[in-house]
User: Fold Maltose epimerase from Lapidilactobacillus gannanensis.
Amino acid sequence: MQAKQTVFDTLNGEDINQYSLTNTNGVTLSCLSYGANWYELKVPTTNGDQNLILNFPKINDYVTTNPYLNMSIGRTAGRIGAGKFKIGEHEYKAPTNESGNTLHGGIHGFNEINWAGKIAANQIIFTHTVTSQADGFPGDLDVTITYTLTDDNRIYLDYKVVSHGETVFNPTNHAYFNLNHADQNIKNLELFLRSSQRLELGDAKIPTGKTLANTETPYDFQTTKALGAAIDGLQDIPEKGLDDVFLIDQHADNEPIAILANPDENLRVKIFSQRNAIVCFTANGFGADQPYIDKTGQPYVGVALESQITPNAIFDPAYGDLTLHDGETKHYQTHYLVEF
Assistant:
């Protein structure tokens, strides 16, 4: 395993470090300290090294044009209506940052932290103490985010937290995949999702508490199909594409919850998780103002597949438990298998 650490850029007088690992098959995993960002997933192909995720050349591009691109997301992924939630009999209100709601950790989420980082063997390890004073959520958290690259082309993304006080925790990663070597959108890519239902979302993308059936709709990926077919079938809705929370059906540990594939280039990314939801977002409104390194900014330039607990668990414990109590340790892991 080859390892490298460099200074990627600076922000507000601080170095933003880049950490890279390359395995024996030539697969390279790179991360940035800012946002504990998943910066690169490069694989060797007949066209040369190909980065399977979108990225920007400068750190300011993340700050000014797309603050969630490939970022670690927390304390909670998704939206909390009006920022309000309860833990037991205690009511809390987190700061809001999107139309009166709290999105992706609110005003100072994980994506805005310049994390302490290091490389240890085949791991990139980020740590930070997230305080209530900094982000407005109750309780403080000691957070460790670990990326592990193996020689069988797996990336393990691990979130570990120790809570000081009661709070909520539902992290994810907001990587955008594009498996095309050419500068084109993702409509030709094929997707499988182990999901027969999705959450009903209101106008502000807040869960209503109801679920909807995916079968025989544009949201049905129980049988692999092209993303373009789904996108074309959703042109009559405001999003004009996917931005939805898919509930994961029961499955064995060794069965992927999602598979994204480019059959023309024999590339696949399989996603494994024991959490009960995955958000699929097809970058519907992205435009030319987003200066990607190898792709032109445009609608459908990438697809995000964000493993998490369903966001309506914030108000309905039947969908999961996002709460942490004083002194509690929590551990989540998602892993990705790259086939090429």
Notes: DSSP finds three helices and 28 strands in the chain.
